[in-house]
Amino acid sequence: MPGFSTVTRIQEHLVRCLGGCNNKYRYTTSLYNHHQKKKKMQSVTPILEADAVSIIKSVTPTLDPSRHKGQAGKIAVVGGCREYTGAPYFAAISALKIGADLSHVFCTKDAAPVIKCYSPELIVHPILEESYSVSDDERQSSTAKVLAEVDKWMERFDCLVIGPGLGRDPYLLDCVSDIIKHARQSNVPMIIDGDGLFLVTNCPDLVSGYPLAVLTPNVNEYKRLVQKVLSGEVDDQNGPLQLINLSKGMGGVTILRKGKSDLISDGETVRSVSMYGSPRRCGGQGDILSGSVAIFLSWARQQDAESKLSLNPTMLGCIAGSILMRKAASFAFENKKRSTLTSDIIECLGRSMEALSPVN
């Protein structure tokens, strides 16, 4: 029988062997984890924080006394029905406050007097109809009249905002679908927001393959788009890659995914805007954003026509609109805190423009 010291040496030898095996196992596991982590990192699409302040300065035109009315942008909002009159007003007036020369609203006849009362600055066209006001026999002729009226103005617009306060009346949505088709034929850029996203989600072909279309979904609207176009669920772990795939799946439209950080993609790259912002989530901020993107997109296209820009003008318009909206919301929250309303943010748009892109 071996002595105590012999037993001890045997035990120490076993411990060393077992420890070596454990160390080897830990080393192998570490290598595996490193490989998996590296593999995961390689599959993740990099997000670049946009140099938003430089972009907003680069696309904003100078205030030149030799320019005439209309050269700084003509925007039209298609939306507004009996129930929702605030949303189209917010989008249209925001474009004016930022620097557009003219802002139009195409809405239903019931919504027009209300929207006109909000501001005499807006040009209001009460031409849209809802199902209750048009009989089945009249629908075809009524739609033709609406399209004829819109077509008279279409070539004058630098950008359309489609959806704020539109509602979900079937006849009205059918009519707006035809307006979208006519805008595509005229090569007019479109910002699709609000109920316009409901329309496009149900019929992606309306904008699919149109590079001058911008979608601005919130979290729920984005979820429905992913389910419809990619037949899956939102994957926040691989959010940028999924956003690129969604844009590609819709033929290269630009998508501005609203959130804590706004993510923007045209199917080629992803940019993030996370500066500024406000914890207040009052309704209507998305309407300000859509009006902001519309005017900045218009300006970016003008600049791109004169000297080629580094990014797609739709991307630049989204980045500039995003940072301005966030800056205005932060200014408004500084003053009003919990009582901040959309109208307070709109009143801060001018101050925000001056802070980010001062008048020379």
Q: How would you describe this protein?
A:
By secondary structure, this protein is α/β, with parallel strands linked by helices. Helices cover about 55% and strands about 10% of the residues. It contains 13 helices and ten strands. A ten-stranded mixed beta sheet has the order 1-10-9-8-7-6-5-2-3-4, sandwiched between helices. β8 and β9 form a beta hairpin. α2 crosses α11, α3 packs parallel to α10 and α7 runs parallel beside α8. The N terminus is likely disordered.
- Write the element-wise H/E pattern from the N-terminal end onward: HEHEHEHEHEHEHEHHEEEHHHH
Separate helix tally: 13
How many β-strand runs?
10
Distance between the termini: 99 Å
Largest sheet: 10 strands, mixed
The average pLDDT is 89
Radius of gyration: 27 Å
Which word captures the global form? globular
Q: Percent of residues in beta strands?
A: 5-15%
Spatial strand arrangement across the major sheet: 1-10-9-8-7-6-5-2-3-4
Question: Uncertain spans, ≥5 residues at pLDDT below 50?
Answer: 1-43
Helix share bin:
40-55%
Secondary-structure content class:
alpha/beta
